[in-house]
Amino acid sequence: MGVQEGKVALVTGGRGGIGRAIVDRLQREGAAVYAADLSEGGSLNDAERGGSNFVRLDVTSESDVIAAMQQVQKDQGKLDILVNAAGIEIEKTIEDTSLEEWNRSFAVNVTGTFLTSKYALPLMRAAASGGSCASLINFGSYDGFIADPGLAAYCATKGAVHALTRAMACDHGPEGIRVNAICPGYIDTPMLQSFFTGDGSGGDGKTIDQLQQAVRDVHPMRSYGTPEDIANLVNWLASDEARYASGQLWVLDGGLSAQVQQMRL
């Protein structure tokens, strides 16, 4: 029996790199999982979907979010776990970022987190009424503490998610709802691969392999993370073992932000 047996989970961005790993892990641990995303991912076969339920969801659309939560209400009557993993990244300085791009970044990364959390709360209260806490997990970033070059809007949105996480933890802890944020560093996802080819990487003519190795080398652990590393932390934060964990920003970056980069020789 898995640690999430009998629980109901919804994961936004559930067909993306990190989101898919989270969906798979929670499903293996016994939860009934809803993978919410813009598309189901036509290349996935039934085994790769892991038996999860797909919900089409644009996190910037209030009507989409309401419909998704209504479906969970109809099917399950509660929601024990909400993971806000949907996100986008724009690789530009503020000077090069258009107002449309700025607003789009905040719409997905911040407003999307606000909307899904807002409309999930009644279902999460229902889950918490059984005596165990419900768990709401947002996605910040180590870029919400420090900054990579050329990611101004992304850094700003993740700082906002960090502050929102703390506020929600204070507001809804008395209702039996724990709220935390996971703050990844470099994780091997399609978003990271696009960063290697974008202006933000500071590539200076290096090959993709050289850039990837340079990123590994700058970490104390000499590697970047995998979606499964993130899913492991999500699984713990969503479990009853983490009953006293709330209002925290959990950095998972292989020690990257623990060191002073200028001192590396």
Automatic annotation (TrEMBL):
**Domain of life per record:** Bacteria
Q: Pfam families of this UniProt entry? A: adh_short_C2 (PF13561)
Q: Which PANTHER family match?
A: DEHYDROGENASES, SHORT CHAIN (PTHR24321), ESTRADIOL 17-BETA-DEHYDROGENASE 8-RELATED (PTHR24321:SF8)
Gene Ontology MF, one: oxidoreductase activity
Q: What is its EC number?
A: 1.1.1.-
The family line of this record is:
Belongs to the short-chain dehydrogenases/reductases (SDR) family.
Concerning PROSITE patterns, the annotation shows: ADH_SHORT (PS00061)
Q: Which UniProt keywords apply?
A: NAD, Oxidoreductase
Xref: InterPro entries: KR_dom, NAD(P)-bd_dom_sf, Sc_DH/Rdtase_CS, SDR_fam
SMART domains (UniProt xref):
PKS_KR
SUPFAM superfamilies named among the record's database cross-references: NAD(P)-binding Rossmann-fold domains (SSF51735)
Instruction: Please state every residue range assigned to the domain named Ketoreductase.
Output: 7-185
* Name this polypeptide is given: SDR family NAD(P)-dependent oxidoreductase
Q: What class of enzyme is it?
A: oxidoreductase
